[in-house]
Design a protein that fits this description.
heterodimer, A: alpha/beta, 2 domains, four-stranded mixed β-sheet, three-stranded mixed β-sheet, 4 helices, elongated, B: Ferritin, 10 helices, Zn_ribbon_PaaD (chain A)
Chain lengths: ~160, ~300
């Protein structure tokens, strides 16, 4: 029998179905005590509509693997950051045609600096690898993605924006 | 259950041939979150404070969604809807917290849909009609978003150190979201002010429309002052907010509108449930279905 952790780690993200919840970094903890499984996840954005889908996918997958007594908990703190997307997750995103986020590190203390111009491009085109890309819109089909275009191959593509 | 798209999820055969209409259909958003109330805190004050923060986000979210399909370009439809979704997410967490701390059995849906106008605790800035429609235009909406997101970002920045674990967690997450809401509004302010004579004229007029409601943001309410280790006294964020707004205005070659603050009513305003007439017109469509058909399903 596969462990509860292995089952939970393999559940796919509802909005980026090339990533598992483990790749995305939202799966915080899986504990199994006397047949009772407690899975802890964290939302990506406050209004992420996928969080309920994640809970029900986790329960369904665990039930399918024979785990009937499952509780899915949500923790809000510490807040999720795109830095928690694993190396495997970044590779899968790029292969799927979505540019992965850059690593941003911890936010310095004090007021958040104002950006009066869009930040300079550090995003490579996932199709041709060119660094000549521009942001078309900071907002795209889901909260976590921005829309960009490659100036070399002219293809539009999505980018998981840094948070 | 996994679906290829949202429509499949909505039309899923749930066994009883009924689908949700009232409420989110989602689980409790605070499921599993550590929600112990700090010992020395008044639960009634904490509940009201959560409502203030929640209502600001809920009402502006509703206003922003009015733009969906009516923004000047498709990307902006998506942007304003995304910002509205972030605020709605913050509102849900805060309403759920307000309801559980209050202890009267009201959940987030009851608080959003079944309160009357005078029970809403939002600042008046978020409720006024800034368009689309006769109350304003895109520039006015951007002006409001600039002022509101700059202020809320500063408040949440302090609230991330709150003695209430739920408020601290909601704020720490909200800071990341408000940071790009503010950047979006600031960048549009520059584009409109530096664009054509017409776009600049609209930006100037938009700022003048929202500026009378700027002072109210920094006026502390007794409940905020009664929760020193938990709540943020909004008068303390004024220097930070002023500095950011002045930076944006200077870069856009704009100046602060010379307008008087909108008067309070007997010393009371949005935080006390005293609103402009715009709020009733906003709540009517927002609450209509839930009130006409309580617990409705189809």
């Amino acid at each position: 029998m596969v462990t509860a952790r292995e089952v939970a780690e393999g559940v796919l993200d509802p909005e980026l179905p090339v990533l598992t919840l483990a790749d995305l970094g939202v799966l915080r903890e899986v504990t199994e005590t006397a047949g009772r499984v407690v899975v802890t996840i964290t939302p990506t954005y406050s209004g992420c509509p996928a969080i309920d889908q994640m809970r029900s996918d986790l329960r369904a997958s665990l039930a399918g693997a024979g785990y009937r007594d499952v509780e899915v908990r949500t923790v809000l703190a510490p807040a999720w950051t795109t830095d928690w997307i694993t190396d495997a997750g970044r590779r899968k995103l790029a292969e799927y045609g979505i540019a992965p986020p850059a690593r941003i590190g911890p936010r310095p203390a004090g007021p958040v600096p104002l950006n009066l111009t869009p930040p300079p491009s550090r995003v490579r085109c996932p199709r041709c690898g060119s660094a000549e890309t521009v942001e078309l819109s900071r907002f795209s089909a889901t909260a976590c993605r921005a829309l960009r275009r490659c100036e070399s191959c002219r293809e539009p593509f999505e980018h998981v924006k840094e948070l | 259950m996994s679906f290829d798209n949202a429509y499949d999820a909505i039309t899923e055969d749930s066994g009883d041939d009924r689908q949700w209409a009232f409420g989110t259909g989602f689980d409790d958003p605070l499921s599993g979150v550590d929600r112990a109330v700090p010992g020395e805190v008044s639960t009634s004050d904490l509940s009201v404070y959560c409502l203030m923060l929640a209502d600001d986000a809920l009402i502006l979210s509703q206003r922003l969604t009015e733009w969906c399909s009516r923004a000047p370009e498709l990307e902006e439809d998506v942007a304003l809807a995304n910002i509205a979704l972030d605020l709605l997410g913050q509102a849900r967490l805060l309403l759920a917290r307000a309801g559980e701390v209050e202890g009267a059995g009201r959940d987030e849906d009851a608080l959003a849909y079944l309160r009357d106008e005078h029970e809403f605790r939002n600042v008046r800035l978020v409720e006024i009609d800034c368009g689309p429609g006769p109350g304003g235009d895109f520039a006015t909406t951007i002006a409001r978003l600039l002022v509101f997101s700059t202020w809320r970002l500063a408040v949440l920045g302090q609230l991330a150190h709150s003695g209430d674990p739920v408020l601290a967690a909601v704020a720490a997450k909200g800071v990341k979201e408000l940071a790009y809401h503010r950047d979006h509004a600031a960048q549009w302010t520059l584009r409109l002010a530096g664009g054509t004579d017409f776009s600049r004229e609209r930006m100037v007029a938009g700022l003048a429309t929202v500026w009378p409601l700027h002072d109210e943001l920094f006026t502390p309410h007794p409940v905020e002052l009664a929760l020193p280790a938990v709540a943020v006294d909004p008068s303390t964020v004024r220097p930070e907010v002023d500095e950011v707004l002045d930076t944006v205005l200077a870069e856009a070659d704009l100046s602060r509108p010379r307008v008087s603050p909108l008067a309070m009513v007997g010393g009371r305003a949005g935080r006390d449930g005293v609103h402009t007439e715009a709020l009733g017109y906003l709540l009517a469509p927002m609450q209509h279905l839930a009130r006409a058909l309580p617990g409705a399903r189809w």
